[in-house]
């Protein structure tokens, strides 16, 4: 069966004074069937978060334009994007008074394949017919404590250090880059990249159901409205990129 891609990117400033999230979906300028989606959450606790997030998208677009599948593997490409963005963000410290940091999620789609990399607590979820296949692990103190069995999910949700990251772009230490992928795309596959301004208010089941039942644009609108309603006036910046695999018409 021939497939098509239904995609949408969306952002909302939430209840913050500045939008420090960035998100974009970009087709390859020369290779049909190839595209990337990129999401970055400029660190809210640092000045210059928006600058850092912009650097992630800029480096991803520049590297993707030069991406050559015959000489560079998806893994190499994804690692290089995060490494180059990290280096660029660190250089920004010396050319401005800002202290920029960012998370990053980079998703690459090729004919029949999807690959991704991330660093920080912005997430990528992979659903198939509404069922969760995988999601990226957060590089946060709270998730490390959960994985070690030292706190429960309920405790994690109210932990006083739930926003503390153990790895991000722009920090002194090199970013922790984790990779994922699926070798065979199928109709019914859906991917969502999102910042914590969205996933903090939506369960895995809710995300999967909305992505299965609605087209990408409608799903983005529904999830944005749901997060804003549940934030009750204290919501963070939120952003998302949705990629759905559908039958070709």
What do these coordinates show?
- It holds the Pfam family PP2C_2.
- Residues 4-245 form the PPM-type phosphatase domain.
- It comes from Uliginosibacterium sediminicola.
- This is Protein phosphatase 2C domain-containing protein.
- The structure is a single chain.
- By secondary structure, the chain is α+β, with helices and mostly antiparallel strands.
- It has one domain (3-247): PPM-type phosphatase domain (Phosphatase 2c, domain 1, 4-Layer Sandwich).
- 33% of the residues lie in helices and 28% in strands.
- The protein has helices at 49-65, 74-95, 141-147, 153-157, 196-199, 204-213, 216-231, and strands at residues 3-12, 21-27, 35-41, 104-110, 113-119, 123-128, 131-135, 178-182, 189-194, 238-247.
- The protein has a five-stranded antiparallel beta sheet.
- The longest helix has 22 residues, at 74-95.
- The termini are close together.
- The model has no long low-confidence stretch (mean pLDDT 93).
| CATH homologous superfamily grouping | PPM-type phosphatase domain
H/E element order:
EEEHHEEEEHHEEHHHE
Largest sheet: 5 strands, antiparallel
Report how far the terminal alpha carbons are from each other.
11 Å
| Total beta strands | 10
**How big a fraction of the residues is strand?**
25-35%
Number of domains: 1
Radius of gyration: 17 Å
- Figure out the total of helices: 7
* Overall SS class: alpha+beta
Low-pLDDT residue spans: none
Q: Tell me, what's the shape? A: globular
Strand order of the largest sheet: 1-10-9-6-7
Pfam families: PP2C_2 (PF13672)
Organism: Uliginosibacterium sediminicola
InterPro entries: PP2C, PPM-type-like_dom_sf, PPM-type_phosphatase-like_dom
Protein name: Protein phosphatase 2C domain-containing protein
């Amino acid at each position: 069966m021939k497939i098509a891609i239904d995609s949408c990117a969306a952002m909302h400033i939430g209840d913050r004074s500045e939008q420090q999230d960035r998100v974009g979906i970009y087709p390859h300028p020369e290779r049909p069937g190839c595209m990337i989606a990129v999401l970055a959450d400029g660190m809210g606790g640092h000045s210059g978060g928006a600058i850092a997030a912009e650097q992630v998208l800029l480096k991803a677009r520049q590297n993707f334009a030069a991406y050559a599948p015959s000489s560079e593997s998806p893994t190499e490409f994804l690692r290089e994007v995060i490494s180059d963005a990290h280096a660029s963000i660190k250089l920004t410290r010396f050319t401005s008074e800002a202290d920029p940091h960012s998370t990053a999620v980079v998703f690459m789609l090729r004919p029949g394949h999807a690959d991704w990399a991330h660093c920080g607590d912005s997430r990528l979820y992979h659903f198939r017919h509404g069922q969760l296949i995988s999601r990226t692990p957060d590089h946060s103190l709270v998730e490390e404590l959960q994985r070690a069995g030292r706190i429960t999910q309920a405790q994690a949700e109210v932990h006083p250090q739930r926003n503390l990251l153990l790895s991000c772009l722009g920090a002194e230490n090199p970013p922790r880059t984790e990779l994922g992928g699926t070798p065979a795309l199928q109709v019914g596959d859906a991917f969502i990249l999102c910042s914590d301004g969205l996933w903090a208010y939506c369960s895995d089941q809710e995300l999967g159901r909305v992505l299965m039942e609605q087209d990408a644009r409608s799903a983005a609108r529904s999830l944005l409205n749901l997060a804003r309603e549940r934030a009750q006036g204290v919501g963070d910046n939120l952003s998302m990129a949705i990629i759905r695999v559908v039958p070709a018409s």
